[in-house]
Structure formats: structure tokens, C-alpha cells
């Protein structure tokens, strides 16, 4: 069992092959690794912008009846913050990681369509920049990131902010769609010999399933945006009630996209955790089959639960019960994964690198967020708690405590592969603890604020009992969180010059991306080891203890 | 413009329940609160289980120096099926209780509304069907009498929410939604609009004042009285100014020519606890501030700044103060 | 160590990749049209005041143009078969497909012209909004298809088509079939169902 396979050299692409590192070579790159890094850098930039937006909001909310910001400014901030974090930070980060890692994990040289990959990236960047140019036209969008009608229609939003939002999102959406198609085709057709679908690393598997979500959810967004723009620009009547239109129809269309979108933001994060926890526990993932199958269950169910965002609309108990049922059901495949990850640690030999710290914290934080989600599936509780700060707490627990923590874990895990150098574990530990403290201070109290009756999207609030205190705690936590992020950036900058050289496999990990140098050469692999299971490098180094589960 | 906290915090705010979602004052809210307690304890239990397992694993399975590679464990199908089924059962039980609470907190409605609320950007028009009573932002009800409220919107989507008294219900333009609430004990119950509706969503607050049947009957009588137009002093001048300035083009004062519904009905404005939908406590000083600079008190509100000279301001306030 | 050099199957891979990508793209567009059709059906069921399908649409005339579009699916199939089996006639069949597609578009424009003359605009009422949006986006997709077919026609007039261009033709023909299937749905809903 010592044969190695060699990938065929593509006919034309690498003929004039030379590793360049100029600005122009980066801007014109079609290499999946460089594009992955461009995605990540772009997301980083928007993360700083979105974070500053959040800080301004938290300053305004620190005390009751504050006048630090005018309401128009606050409304633009919360709209931009939501739109930026979702479309310009989380999704691009996850796409960037996918673009970088998936070809490596399956033993390919690049994605299926390298130029399409570049197009996807540039459409994303263009859309983001276009969205923000709205500021220079006097009015950033201010109707909330899900833009309910008729507030988003004329005459209630007669300034062009909504149009900038819609057109920017069109561009971003088409770019994301292109990337989704690219990733599916890559995983289906470009796997190296031996890499069967049942041997995919779970990050690649979840990326693939996630990409189907992208392909089927983004068009609903495009349709919604088209109808909204036609309403606003051509005076059509889709969502304007004065002329027979239905605001509720907007909500149905938007959430048909919007709900799968939140799973788009979380499935690749699950993939990261599924890579990091096993490697640092020195155990294979507990229940590979269950984890892979539950991902498909989530993807299918995610199209059947959208109206749980509309329980307060008055759709009628029958509709509410149907969607509540689906929402309860989707909690099952999501929840059992937590147990699979915990049991991966069982009887392991855990190394608490920073990546593993974040992955472990993810397990708890995401459980909090997931359970608050289950609470919202209990319709009468939703009738009290929706549109309050409990929702704000929920979304931030799943998207920050969940996805962002997973992203941090992924950054610490794969930074050595991408840059060739290690991040400092000391700085990483500081980053970790300040993040955990800052995050929980900021968002845990928001559960209490919601139960205290504080509604969301309010630019200020009256001096109700303890609202001032709870908000102040949340604001202080936000500043701590901001500070902790600075630690991460410093760690990254410092590592470029002073980080230890990583070598090909500093973590003794098992998937194919670790079977090449750090960073990988442009052509990814000169040779790849034989693949007989999901952990090729484990099998290689433990020939007497090769993975024996699932059909080979 | 120093609007200090003590000006705004009326007694009702100071004595408000800290966690109104858990201080129900109607059967509707009680059924939700009861369900919520059960669900929260259950989810807390699940969270503690996960935290316990993680803590245990973190301590017990930490890498020890000199340890060899652990023997791989690939899974345990029986265990996985067990926790999957357990989770399904727990959620199933919660669902059963949830559906029951849906029925009790949101019973079917019928044709007759006891209240009709029209939500505007950013105030509440309150009508009592079957009577001529129209008020704004402050809703009086008799205790222990379930109120079916018809909810309509004059513009965008709003949401009516008084947590101690019942569920929240979206208000969709073009549709009349109906919802139930009640109060078991006399008092002031605070709520707010709970769907982002534009710039001053934050200051679209609701006040429900539950009264004994006698007090409520007295209130009704007072509301039905058409106030006499004052004939001398500042107030008389104010009454004239009200009609001549553009006030009458948006507001109603019964017994006068002012009969518009663009802004709140002011017939008994002096009897209310707050003005500008909870933005300010209703005092002459605050009323003057509001009339002088509505765009500073509640930026974005539809009431224009008329740049009133001092004297006109004072006479208008004097007039409005007579509208008890 | 044995080093195994794999067969150079780049061309077969290209065909597989582009076909899968086209199928995924077309599925995505199907969802897009499903949303627009849903909006049309929702509002048609609520019988808006003013002009509606029953009053202003002519299923018979549009049926003729539909027949042209559907025949173009057949001609593009022949074109693709000619190229696959290296038989002559590729350019001819491509031209025929384009011609039939162009006739369809002409019919669509004629219909719009007539409706606009009767003051049935996109802002007139919900029939106008949903009708123009749905058929308009479909016409846009037809136009894009015609452009793609045109490019293939020009390429086919050279002596030889290389492998990438052959798989491009296959993908374009699938796209064209998709455009036709969408029209079958749109025609059935708009011209057959909502005119009742």
C-alpha cells in the first residue's frame, strides 16, 4: 500500500508558470488560494467597519434618552451593521475558507472554474463598495437588513438608500451564487483518486451541502430584490398595501431566502469545528455518518421553516403550528452535532491550543444560541419575545458565539498553512479569554433586557428599571470585545515577521491540505498520498490502525 | 434642551415591573408565562448538561505528558440514536404544551371589537367602538374584562405589545389583525410598538390604564363630555390660535371646527399622563417644550415646528390645559 | 515507490463540469421564476380591480408564438445532435433556433405594445405589475439565450469546433430548453389558467 498518485498536469493553464507576488498578480489572480485570501482580507475590512458601526450603536444605547446619535444615523447604522456582518463578513469569510481549503482537501489543483471564482469575488467586493457609496449620496439604507415593506417602499423610504442596498445585494448575491455553483462542481468532479464522497473531510462535505443551500436560496433573494426595485423604480404594486399589494408577501419571499441564509452562515462553521475538535482531541470525529447525514437533514429542513420569523404576523394557528413543527424538527440534527463533537473529545488526549479553546467555547456558546432558538420555536414564547433584545441576543450567540468563534478556531488552525508561520499561542490565549468575557458581557444581559420589555431597533429608550444598567454592561462588554479583536490583528501582523516557521503539518493533522508545504505551492501538490479514508495522513502514519469505518 | 431623566420617568416607569414578561396580569399572559417557565427550566437543564459534559471532557481528557496516541473511537450508534430520540421526545412534549398555550393565550376572535387601535408613525389612535370616545396613546380599560382589540395601520407595519397583558400582534397595513388582552388588577401597564416602523419607533410607547368598573365609567363620562371653548384670558386666545394656525389641519378637538385624524385627537389631551406617545410626561412645561420644538423633542416626527412666538405658545398651552 | 501517472482526461472532465454547472445554474433560475410565478398566482387569485388576464390577454395569438419557441427546442436539439455526431447542418439548425426565438420575442414585444396602448402598464394594477415582471424576466432570459446562440452560430461557421466549444453548445442547449420549460409554466399559468 505504498503507491502514490500524481495529478495530471492541466493542459494549458500552468504552461507559463511562475510564482509572482505583485499587486497586479493578486488583483488578476484566478488561483483559489489567492482568491481565498482576498475573500478573507475583504471580510476582515468589513468586519472592522461593521464592528465600528456596532460600537457607535452601543455608545448611543449606553444610557437612557441619549443624544449621542440622531435617530436617522442610528437607523442607518443598525441596517448597515446587519447587512455588512451577514453579507460582507460572515459569508465571504466562510466562502474564502472554502475556496482556499476545499481543493486542497480533495487533492485538486484548483476549483472547477477558476475564472468564475474570481468573478464571484469581484462581484462581492463591488456590491459591498456600492452599498457603502450610498453614504456619499446622502442616505445609507435605514430600513433594517430585512427591509420590510411598506417601510422600504416609497413614500416611506423616498431616499435612494434602499436602492443602493438592493442593487448592492444583487451583485453580492450573484457572486455568492457563482461561488456556490463552483464549489459543488469542484467537489463532485475534481476529487483525486481515492477521495470518494464518503471519505470527504467534513469541512468539504459541509461546504458542498452548504453550496446547495446557496444555489436554492439566493434566487429567492434576487426575486425579492427585483420586485422591490420594480415597485420603487417603476411604481409597481407588489408590496404596497394602498394599491392591493401585500407586505406579508415580501416577508414570505424574503424569509424563504433569509432562513436558509442563516444556515449558510453556520454550516461551514460546523465544518470547521468538525476539523478542529478531532485533530486537537487526537480522536476521529465521533459518528462521522451521523454528522454528515444531519447536515443534509438541516439543509432540506431549512427550506420549510421560514415563517417562524412571522409568528407575530397573525398568519393563523394552523400556519404557525406547521412552521413551529419544522423549526422544532430542525433543532434535532443541529443539536445532536453538539453531542457528537463533545464525544469526540471523550477518551482523547486534548491539546488546548487557541484553536481548540475557541472550538470548545463554541460548543457552549452555540448551545446557548441554539436553545434560545428553540425557545422561539415555542410560538407563545415567540409572541412575547420576538422583536425584543432576546432576538438580538439569540442571533449574536449563534452568529458570534457560534460562527465567529468557529472562524477564530479556523483562523488559528489554518493560519500556519496559509502563511507558513505560527500565530503566538500566548497572544491567542489573551485573545480567547478577552473575547469570551467581552462577548458574554455584551450579549448575555441582552436576554434580560428582552424579558424586561426592551424592543429591538430602538435608537434610545426610557429609564425603565435596570435598562440603563444592563445596557451599560452590554456597552462595556462591546468595547472589551473590540479590544480583544485588536489582539487578534496584532497576533496576525506579528506572526508575519516573528512567527515560528510552521512546516507542512504543525498540528499533526490528517487531511490532505497538511500533505503539502505551508503555504502550498501554486500547483498545490506535487504528489498526494494514497487515500483510503477520511484521514489519509493518519492512515499513512498508522498503517496497522487505518480507519475502518464506512465502506472503503 | 435639557430633558432630564426625572422629567420623563413618571411614577409608572419608576414602579414598572422589572421583567414584565414574567409578571403576567391577565390569563393570556399567564398561560404564556407558565409555559415559558417550564421551557426555560428544560433548556437550562440541557445547557447545564452540555456544559457539564464539556467541563468533564476538558479536565479528564486533557493531554498528559508522555501519553501515547489514544485508541480511535469512531462512534456509538446506539448512543447517537438514544440522544437523538431523547431530544425529539423533549421537543415533542414542549410542542404539546406550546399548542395548548397558543389556544389559551390567543383565543379565536369574533366580529365585535371592544377596542379599535389605528397605529400611525409614531402614535396610537384609540377608538372605543359603539361610543364616540377617541383618545391617543393611552388606553383605559376596566379590570377583569377581556378586550378584543382590532389593530389597523395607517402607514407601515407596527406591533402592539403590552407584555404583562397579552401577546404581541403585528399590525399590517391593509389588514385588520385582532388580539386579546385584559388586566386583572387596577394599575398602569407599559408597552411599546414592537416592529421597527421608522425613525421614532423608539418613542411609540403604549400605556394601558386598568381601572375599577366605577373609575372606568367615570373616565368614560369625562371623555364623552365636549369641552366648552374658553371665552376669556390666555386660553381663549389659545383656542382661536389653534383654529387659525395649522393645528386644526391635523388634529381633532370635538366641539370645534378642528376635525382631522392626521394627528392625535386632542379633545381631552390634558387628562393623559404623557404626550408624544410616551416621550414626555404631560406637564405644562413639557407641553410648551413639545409645541416649541417638536423636531428636537422627537426628531423625525410629523408635527411641524411652527416657530411659535412666546405669547402664542403660552396661550396655546393655556388652552390645551383646559382640555381635561 | 510506484508513481502512477493518470490518463489525461481533462476534456471529459470539462464536459462533466460545465454540464453540472449549467444544471445547477438552471435550477437556481427555476427557483427565481417560481417566486415570480408565485407572486403572479397570489395576486391573480385575489382578483385585482382593473385590467386582468381574462380581459386583455389573447391566448390564441400567444399560443402561436409559444409554438415557435417550443419548436426552437427541437431545432436546438437537432443542432446539438448534428455537432455530436459530426453531421452537417449545425449552423443551419442554430440559425433556425435563433429565428424561432426571435419570432417569439417579436410576438412578446407586439403583445407589450398592444397592452401599453390600452394603458395596461406595470404600475396600473397588480395584474400589470406581476405580468410584466414575470414575462419581462423571461424575455430577458430569451434574449440572453439568443446572444449565446448567436455566438455559437458564428463559431460554427468556422471549419472546426474544439472540445470546449462543443461542451459550451451542449450547455447552451440545456439553457435554451430551460427557457422553454419556464415559458410552458408561464404560459400555462398566465394565458391558460388566469384567463379563466
Chart the SSEs and their pairings.
The complex is a heterotrimer of chains A (552), B (324) and C (196).
Chain A: E1 4-6, H1 23-27, H2 32-61, H3 71-105, H4 114-133, H5 161-189, H6 202-234, H7 247-264, H8 267-281, H9 288-301, H10 317-345, H11 354-377, H12 379-385, H13 389-419, H14 425-451, H15 467-498, H16 536-541
Chain B: H1 5-8, H2 11-14, H3 27-60, H4 77-105, E1 115-120, E2 123-127, E3 134-136, E4 138-142, E5 147-153, E6 158-161, E7 169-171, E8 177-181, E9 187-193, E10 205-211, H5 213-224, H6 233-244, E11 274-275, E12 280-281, H7 284-292, H8 294-297, H9 310-321
Parallel strand pairs in B: 1-5, 4-10
Antiparallel strand pairs in B: 1-2, 2-3, 5-8, 6-7, 6-9, 9-10, 11-12
Chain C: E1 3-5, H1 10-45, H2 53-56, H3 59-84, H4 90-117, H5 126-156, H6 163-193
Helix pairs in contact in C: 1-5, 1-6, 3-4, 3-6, 4-5, 5-6
What are the salient characteristics of this protein?
heterotrimer, A: 552 residues, mainly alpha, Cytochrome C Oxidase, Chain A, 16 helices, globular, C: 196 residues, Four Helix Bundle (Hemerythrin (Met), subunit A), 6 helices, elongated, disordered N terminus
Name of the CATH homologous superfamily of the domain at 57-193 in chain C: Cytochrome c oxidase, subunit III, four-helix bundle
Distance between the termini of chain C: 75 Å
**CATH arch. level architecture of the domain at 115-219 in chain B:** Sandwich
Number of strands of chain C: 1
Q: What is the CATH domain class of the domain at 57-193 in chain C?
A: Mainly Alpha
Characterization of the model:
The complex is a heterotrimer of chains A (552), B (324) and C (196). By secondary structure, chain A is mostly helical. Chain A is built from 16 helices and one strand. Chain B is an alpha+beta fold and 324 residues long. In chain B, helix 3 runs antiparallel to helix 4 and helix 6 packs across helix 9. Chain C has 196 residues and is mainly α. Chain C is elongated, with a radius of gyration of 20 Å. Chains in contact: A-B, A-C. At the A-B interface, helix 3, helix 9, helix 10, helix 11 and helix 12 of A face helix 3, helix 4, strand 8 and strand 9 of B.
Amino acid at each position: 500500500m505504498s503507491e502514490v498518485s500524481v495529478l495530471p498536469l492541466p493542459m494549458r493553464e500552468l504552461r507559463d508558470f511562475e510564482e509572482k507576488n505583485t499587486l497586479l498578480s493578486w488583483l488578476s489572480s484566478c488561483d483559489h488560494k489567492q482568491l481565498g485570501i482576498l475573500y478573507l482580507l475583504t471580510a476582515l475590512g468589513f468586519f472592522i467597519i461593521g464592528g465600528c458601526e456596532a460600537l457607535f450603536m452601543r455608545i448611543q444605547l449606553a444610557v437612557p434618552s441619549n443624544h449621542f446619535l440622531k435617530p436617522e444615523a442610528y437607523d442607518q447604522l443598525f441596517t448597515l451593521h446587519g447587512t455588512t456582518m451577514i453579507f460582507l463578513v460572515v459569508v465571504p469569510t466562510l466562502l474564502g475558507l472554502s475556496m482556499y481549503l476545499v481543493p486542497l482537501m480533495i487533492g485538486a489543483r484548483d476549483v472547477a472554474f477558476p475564472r468564475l471564482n474570481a468573478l464571484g469575488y469581484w462581484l462581492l467586493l463591488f456590491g459591498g463598495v456600492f452599498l457603502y457609496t450610498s453614504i456619499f449620496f446622502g442616505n445609507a439604507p435605514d430600513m433594517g437588513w430585512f427591509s420590510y415593506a411598506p417601510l422600504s417602499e416609497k413614500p416611506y423610504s423616498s431616499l435612494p438608500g434602499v436602492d443602493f442596498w438592493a442593487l448592492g445585494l444583487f451583485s453580492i448575491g450573484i457572486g455568492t451564487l457563482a461561488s456556490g455553483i463552483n464549489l459543488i462542481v469542484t467537489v463532485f468532479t475534481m476529487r483525486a483518486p481515492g477521495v470518494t464522497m464518503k471519505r470527504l473531510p467534513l469541512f468539504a462535505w459541509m461546504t458542498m451541502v452548504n453550496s446547495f443551500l446557496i444555489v436554492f436560496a439566493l434566487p429567492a433573494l434576487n426575486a425579492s430584490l427585483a420586485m422591490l426595485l420594480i415597485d420603487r423604480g417603476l411604481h409597481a404594486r407588489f408590496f404596497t398595501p394602498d394599491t392591493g399589494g401585500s407586505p406579508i408577501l415580501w416577508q414570505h419571499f424574503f424569509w424563504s431566502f433569509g432562513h436558509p441564509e442563516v444556515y449558510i452562515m453556520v454550516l461551514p462553521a460546523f465544518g470547521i469545528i468538525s476539523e478542529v475538535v478531532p485533530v486537537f482531541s487526537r480522536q476521529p470525529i465521533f459518528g462521522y455518518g451521523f454528522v454528515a447525514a444531519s447536515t443534509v437533514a438541516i439543509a432540506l429542513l431549512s427550506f420549510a421553516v421560514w415563517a417562524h420569523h412571522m409568528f407575530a404576523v397573525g398568519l393563523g394557528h394552523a400556519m404557525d403550528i406547521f412552521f413551529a413543527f419544522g423549526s422544532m424538527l430542525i433543532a434535532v440534527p443541529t443539536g445532536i452535532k453538539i453531542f457528537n463533537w463533545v464525544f469526540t473529545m471523550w477518551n482523547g488526549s486534548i491539546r488546548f491550543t487557541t484553536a481548540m479553546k475557541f472550538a470548545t467555547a463554541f460548543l457552549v456558546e452555540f448551545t446557548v444560541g441554539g436553545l434560545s432558538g428553540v425557545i422561539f420555536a415555542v410560538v407563545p414564547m415567540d409572541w412575547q419575545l420576538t422583536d425584543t433584545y432576546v432576538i438580538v441576543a439569540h442571533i449574536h450567540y449563534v452568529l458570534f458565539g457560534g460562527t465567529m468563534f468557529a472562524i477564530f478556531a479556523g483562523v488559528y488552525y489554518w493560519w500556519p498553512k496559509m502563511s507558513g508561520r505560527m500565530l503566538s499561542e500566548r497572544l491567542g490565549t489573551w485573545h480567547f479569554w478577552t473575547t469570551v468575557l467581552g462577548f458574554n458581557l455584551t450579549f448575555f444581559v441582552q436576554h434580560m433586557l428582552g424579558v424586561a420589555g426592551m424592543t429591538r431597533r430602538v435608537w434610545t429608550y426610557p429609564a425603565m428599571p435596570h435598562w440603563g444598567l444592563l445596557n451599560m454592561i452590554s456597552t462595556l462588554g462591546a468595547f472589551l470585545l473590540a479590544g480583544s479583536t485588536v489582539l487578534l490583528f496584532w497576533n496576525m501582523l506579528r506572526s508575519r515577521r516573528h512567527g515560528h516557521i510552521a512546516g507542512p503539518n504543525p498540528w499533526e493533522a490528517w487531511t490532505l491540505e497538511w500533505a503539502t508545504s505551508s503555504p502550498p505551492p501554486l500547483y498545490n501538490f506535487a504528489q498526494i498520498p494514497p487515500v483510503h479514508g477520511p484521514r489519509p495522513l493518519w492512515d499513512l502514519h498508522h498503517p496497522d490502525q487505518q480507519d475502518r469505518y464506512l465502506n472503503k | 434642551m435639557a430633558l432630564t431623566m426625572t422629567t420623563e420617568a413618571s411614577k409608572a416607569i419608576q414602579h414598572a415591573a422589572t421583567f414584565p414578561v414574567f409578571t403576567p396580569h391577565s390569563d393570556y399572559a399567564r398561560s404564556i408565562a407558565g409555559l415559558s417557565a417550564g421551557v426555560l427550566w428544560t433548556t437550562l437543564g440541557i445547557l447545564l448538561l452540555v456544559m457539564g459534559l464539556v467541563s468533564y471532557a476538558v479536565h479528564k481528557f486533557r493531554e498528559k505528558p508522555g501519553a501515547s496516541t489514544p485508541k480511535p473511537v469512531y462512534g456509538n450508534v446506539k448512543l447517537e440514536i438514544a440522544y437523538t430520540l431523547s431530544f425529539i421526545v423533549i421537543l415533542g412534549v414542549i410542542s404539546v404544551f406550546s399548542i395548548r398555550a397558543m389556544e389559551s393565550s390567543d383565543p379565536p376572535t369574533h366580529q365585535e371589537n371592544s377596542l379599535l387601535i389605528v397605529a400611525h408613525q409614531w402614535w396610537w389612535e384609540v377608538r372605543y367602538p359603539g361610543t364616540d370616545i377617541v383618545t391617543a396613546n393611552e388606553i383605559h380599560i376596566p379590570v377583569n374584562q377581556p378586550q378584543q382589540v382590532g389593530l389597523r395601520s395607517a402607514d407601515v407595519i407596527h406591533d402592539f405589545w403590552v407584555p404583562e397583558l397579552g401577546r404581541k400582534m403585528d399590525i399590517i397595513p391593509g389588514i385588520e389583525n385582532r388580539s386579546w388582552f385584559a388586566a386583572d388588577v387596577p394599575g398602569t401597564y407599559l408597552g411599546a410598538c414592537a416592529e421597527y416602523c421608522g425613525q421614532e419607533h423608539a418613542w411609540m410607547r403604549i400605556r394601558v390604564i386598568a381601572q375599577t368598573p366605577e373609575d372606568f365609567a367615570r373616565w368614560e363620562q369625562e371623555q364623552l363630555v365636549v369641552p366648552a371653548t374658553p371665552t376669556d384670558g390666555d386660553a381663549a386666545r389659545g383656542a382661536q390660535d389653534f383654529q387659525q394656525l395649522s393645528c386644526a389641519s391635523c388634529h381633532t378637538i370635538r366641539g370645534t371646527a378642528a376635525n382631522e385624524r392626521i394627528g392625535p385627537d386632542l379633545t381631552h389631551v390634558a387628562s393623559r399622563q404623557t404626550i408624544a406617545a410616551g416621550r414626555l410626561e404631560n406637564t405644562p412645561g413639557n407641553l410648551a417644550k413639545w409645541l416649541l420644538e417638536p423636531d428636537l423633542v422627537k426628531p423625525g416626527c410629523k408635527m411641524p415646528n411652527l416657530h411659535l412666538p412666546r405669547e402664542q405658545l403660552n396661550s396655546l398651552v393655556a388652552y390645551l390645559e383646559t382640555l381635561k | 515507490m510506484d508513481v502512477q501517472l493518470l490518463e489525461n482526461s481533462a476534456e471529459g472532465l470539462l464536459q462533466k463540469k460545465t454540464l453540472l454547472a449549467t444544471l445547477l445554474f438552471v435550477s437556481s433560475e427555476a427557483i427565481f421564476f417560481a417566486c415570480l410565478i408565485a407572486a403572479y398566482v397570489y395576486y391573480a387569485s385575489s382578483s385585482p380591480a382593473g385590467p386582468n388576464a381574462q380581459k386583455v390577454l389573447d391566448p390564441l395569438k400567444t399560443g402561436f408564438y409559444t409554438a415557435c419557441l417550443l419548436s426552437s427546442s427541437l431545432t436546438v436539439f437537432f443542432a446539438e445532435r448534428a455537432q455530436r455526431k459530426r453531421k452537417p447542418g449545425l449552423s443551419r439548425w442554430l440559425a433556425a433556433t435563433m429565428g424561432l426565438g426571435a419570432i417569439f420575442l417579436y410576438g412578446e414585444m407586439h403583445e407589450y405594445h398592444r397592452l401599453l396602448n390600452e394603458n395596461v402598464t406595470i404600475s396600473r394594477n397588480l395584474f400589470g405589475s406581476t405580468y410584466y415582471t414575470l414575462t419581462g424576466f423571461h424575455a430577458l432570459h430569451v434574449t440572453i439565450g439568443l446572444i449565446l446562440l448567436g455566438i455559437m452560430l458564428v463559431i460554427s461557421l468556422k471549419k472546426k469546433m474544439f472540445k470546449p466549444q462543443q461542451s459550451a453548445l451542449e450547455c447552451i442547449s440545456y439553457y435554451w430548453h430551460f427557457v422553454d420549460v419556464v415559458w410552458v409554466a408561464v404560459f400555462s399559468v398566465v394565458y391558460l389558467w388566469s384567463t379563466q
